[in-house]
Design a protein that fits this description.
Blueprint (H helix, E strand, L loop, with lengths): L14 H7 L10 E7 L5 E7 L6 E4 L10 H7 L3 E4 L17 H15 L5 E5 L1 H12 L7 E4 L11 H7 L4 E2 L2 H11 L5 H11 E3 L5 E3 L19 H7 L4 E6 L7 H10 L4 E5 L6 H4 L1 H16 L1
Parallel strand pairs: 3-4, 3-5, 5-6, 6-10, 10-11
Antiparallel strand pairs: 1-2, 2-4, 7-9, 8-9
Length: about 300
């Protein structure tokens, strides 16, 4: 890719790469549209709506990601789904207060779920999105029939997630695309260059001077103590939920450990836990087909 040229970008023009990389049996152009809802105060929450029927799954991505992180999973499923851009990420508005804690985010995304996917069979969140959907299930149980959390529990700590935050908290901007791609490859050695290139195009933007900057807001909530856990008090939420809970753990990820699984099962003995071998923290990026298979199981259970 030429370093000093304007790079064309069509967010719906890259699905053929996902299809080819994972040998998916998709014969027609996916029906995907960008939708949005307006919050009080004029901010908006954006999302990708797959299919024309009522969404059966709601996806909520992790910190520093966007709704396109689920593209391969959505293509493999072939279901009507809603993939949300969290506030401060993707095409959603940034919060003026910089509050991207799970409780604040859950309050924001409740509006778009209530409007576009109020009867989804599964709400699936990864990392920060998983904690956000946990808070949503606690605050708005009417919107969450079944909860799937991908490689996250309230036991997350800065130490467990250090390798991820080191990447997220790196440079905000890059002189050219090649520099941005090189850093991304360095921190994601198991992923294909094609998939990382595609991910960057969805998650960064080229500025007028042809440099590149991440789309996500890197500010943190000013009233939060440095190093404080974003998951404080959330184990108690899990105990009070009535919906089924499934945890999908990345087999090589340090973010969820055996103690976290034990604590989850102590507080919710009925919780289901799956380990996806060969997956790191981003299970949807490392093993999307395996995650799609687990989601099919969840959908089947939601019918019974």
């Amino acid at each position: 890719m030429t370093s000093a040229a304007k790079v064309p970008y069509d967010e719906f023009g890259l699905f053929h790469e996902n299809i080819a990389e994972y040998h998916l049996q998709v014969s027609t152009q996916p029906q995907v549209a960008r939708v949005a809802t307006t919050l009080e105060g004029g901010r908006h929450v954006s999302a990708l709506r797959w299919g024309s029927a009522a969404p059966r799954i709601v996806f909520v991505h992790g910190s520093a990601q966007n709704a396109h992180t689920w593209d391969t999973v959505c293509l493999a499923l072939g279901e009507s789904v809603l993939a949300i851009d969290l506030p401060g990420h993707g095409h959603s508005s940034w919060r003026d207060d910089g509050d991207y804690t799970p409780r604040a985010l859950a309050f924001d995304i409740a509006t778009i779920i209530e409007q576009l996917a109020p009867r989804a069979g599964v709400v699936c969140g990864m990392s920060l999105g998983g904690l956000t959907t946990l808070a949503l299930a606690y605050q708005r149980p009417d919107l969450v029939s079944r909860l799937m959390m991908v490689d996250i529990t309230p036991g997350v700590t800065p130490e467990k997630s250090k390798s991820i935050t080191d990447f997220v908290n790196g440079p905000q901007s890059f002189a050219n695309f090649d520099d941005l791609l090189a850093r991304t490859i360095e921190h994601n050695p198991t992923r294909s260059t094609t998939s990382l290139r595609r991910g960057i195009l969805h998650n960064a933007r080229q500025l007028d001077d042809l440099s590149w900057a991440w789309r996500y807001d890197r500010r943190s909530h000013p009233r939060r103590e440095p190093g404080a856990s974003v998951a404080a008090g959330m184990w108690e939420m899990i105990e009070r939920l009535h919906c089924p809970i499934t945890l999908v753990r990345g087999g090589t990820s340090p973010v969820v450990d055996d103690a976290d699984v034990a604590e989850l099962q102590r507080r919710r003995p009925d919780a289901v836990v799956h380990v996806v071998d060969g997956a790191g923290h981003s299970v949807q990026g490392d093993r999307p087909l395996e995650l799609a298979a687990l989601l099919r199981q969840e959908l089947a259970s939601s019918r019974t």
